[in-house]
From TrEMBL, chains A, B:
Homodimer. Residues 1-79 form the GST N-terminal domain. Residues 84-214 form the GST C-terminal domain. SUPFAM superfamilies: GST C-terminal domain-like, Thioredoxin-like. This is Glutathione S-transferase. It comes from Acetobacter indonesiensis. GO terms for biological process: glutathione metabolic process. Keywords: Transferase.
Amino acid sequence: MRTLFHLPISPYCRKIRLVLGEKRLPFEAIVERVWEERPEFLAMNPAGEVPVLVEDNGLIVPDSHVICEYLEEAYSDTPLLGRTLAERVEVRRLVAWFDGHFADEVTNRFIGERVMKRLSGRGNPDGTVLREGYAAMKPNLKYVNHLAENRTWLAGNFLSLADFAAAAHLSCLDFIGDIDWSRVPAVRDWYARMKSRPCFRPLLSDRVSGITPPDYYANLDF
Amino acid sequence: MRTLFHLPISPYCRKIRLVLGEKRLPFEAIVERVWEERPEFLAMNPAGEVPVLVEDNGLIVPDSHVICEYLEEAYSDTPLLGRTLAERVEVRRLVAWFDGHFADEVTNRFIGERVMKRLSGRGNPDGTVLREGYAAMKPNLKYVNHLAENRTWLAGNFLSLADFAAAAHLSCLDFIGDIDWSRVPAVRDWYARMKSRPCFRPLLSDRVSGITPPDYYANLDF
């Protein structure tokens, strides 16, 4: 059975779970507590990070970007990168924006302080980091709202990896209750459409010890 | 004329300069002082980072990973990602390892403290960060040495994007004189082969105000 080593509240892992679901590729998800630095896991991925996908034929594919490019080449029935060169640049640009810029400024601050510190026993959230995260969230979500207002899907008129990358980040932030949806109505409408896709269901039933998501987290009419 | 907005001592920009050179795609390189947040530049790349490639047809391609995938699809004469799915996973895995893990632990610490702080007028290098960088450099270069000892090129028996990503990081560290080559002889032999490629020449003549590279930086028999 195809196996995904992951952490539930990681945007990079959630992106892969969504993409595998969208491409209808069945997999077993195994939680990997990366901070324990398990030698068998480090042998699979010297970078020591999740996600890592292991195919039935034994091929080990680490890193969410590497996994996405691999899945696109290996299973091209449900293409998620666009057709033309310009479309593919725009999809990959937005994925890089969410996984790089948005992660640095927003997601990693909240997930690092509120989730990873708790899970790995590294103390309490640092209020300064969270305040920086809130300050950065406003202009960044405004940019996403601008995209959602002007396009059917985030990268254009087709559903793409950009939507799954974005939904992965926002769903992590929503899990810990940190998004004020009333400020970004176009993002909320787009996210409601994403949330109602079958591939999203497993994410909505994620539970993490010690963290209770808000009631509307799993609600499709939030 | 194809244009690359870049910074000379950025591993991500150097990777693109090497790849453009290897693929024999002429370009004009323009230094972009990203910390000045020039509005015209932010309009091209909302992430505000270099490299950004602008093609003759007006297509704007930001982000080193996006540029590499784009160049591979648009100019496939000199393929740099490998042929089989497994080869492509290994090439991309190593690129992600250098641009993610190695950058976080090593390159960004040195470049951030010794180069970016000076260029953007943000004070003196933080000794603690540099010490962390030196401590992390040893095990990381040991892993690269292991690859160089056991393979013709870093990802296998073919020259690939992994070699250019690696050479980009090591050439930045070499520019500021922070690599003890005697500890990693296999890396030195591999780097000497990389350095002698025509695409490398422009990097060896880079000069940055206030930073003098060591004498051996531009020497092919270092």
